[in-house]
Every structure is written in C-alpha cells, then in structure tokens.
Amino acid sequence: MAGIIDLLSNNSDVAFTPDGLRKLAEPRESREAPSKPTEFQIHRLSARLGAEQIDDVVRRYRAGESARSLATESGVAPSALLRLLRERNVVVRQQVVTSEQDQTMARDYGAGMTMAELEEKHGLSHGAVLRALHRMGVEMRAKAPRRKGN
After folding, report:
1. What are 86-132's pLDDT values in tens digits?
2. How many helices (H) and strands (E) does the chain have?
C-alpha cells in the first residue's frame, strides 16, 4: 500500500494518476471492447407520457380524480404530475381537512384506530392525518416495533 501511495504522491518519478491506475486495474477485454453509449431515461414528463396521455390526465384531474391516483396509474411521481398540471395552467386543488374531520380523527385515534386506518377511512395522506392530530393536540402513541423480514 505504501508503494501505491508513493507512486501517487508528487514525489514520484513515475506519472501515475488515480484514473490511470483505474484503467490499469480494468480487465483487458473491457478496455479493448468498444463502449456502448449510455442510455438515459427521459426525465421530461411530457416526452415520457405523450400528448394524448397528458390531455387525458388533465381532463380526468379536472373531472375530480386525485393527482395521486393518476400519477400511480401513469407510473410517475405525484409531485411530477402536479408540476406538469401547473405547467399546463391547471388549478391544483388543495385538499382541506375540515374541523369536523379533525375532531373525528382525534376521537377515532383515541379509540384505538391506527394512522393507516385513519388515512384509509378519510382518504388522506399520512402527513395530512398527522397534522390534523397535532392540531387537535392529540398525544401520539409509541410506534410498534418493526418485524424482521422472513
């Protein structure tokens, strides 16, 4: 190891660079084989989905479907889909949790329902349920220990 460090230091007479050493460490056949161009996934959502699918998503969102369900169906992140909708001047809905929902969730949580059950019952995200419970001053239960995978 000391020999390699000495070779890489500025005091060495031999001009080895870290990149040069990596090239020497590669198997000969990989150095001689022509390299294939790297294929990158297109990140622009409009190029990935296509005009027809985007028009369909916009139409369905305006008709009342959730951005999360449309994103899941389209195979994209909800945040990317929302950005796409905003780029197309679609007014993005903000789901408002009413004070009645806050009270119901607090009561149900106090009665023993889990966060996941509250999320499903009210059709809200984990964060929305958590914020509602915090607004109501609910003391959160300790998390259950995670089970080890089989």
Report:
1. 888 888 887 778 889 899 999 999 999 998 899 888 888 788 899 99
2. 10, 0
Closest by alpha carbon to 133, among 149, 144, 117, 148? 117
Cβ contact 150:120 at 8 Å: no
**Whole-angstrom distance, CA of residue 77 vs CA of residue 98:** 27
Taking the whole predicted model, whether its pTM rises above 0.90 is answered as no
Tokens of 136: 């109501």
Task: Output the CA torsion sign for 16, 20, 26, 29.
Answer: negative
Report d(CA 43, CA 83) in Å as an integer.
Answer: 13
**Given the structure tokens 């449309």, which residue do they identify?**
70
Residue 38 structure tokens: 């790297």
What is the Cα gyration radius of the chain?
A: 27
d(C-alpha 33, C-alpha 65), whole Å: 51
Inter-residue contact 119 to 125 (CB < 8 Å): yes
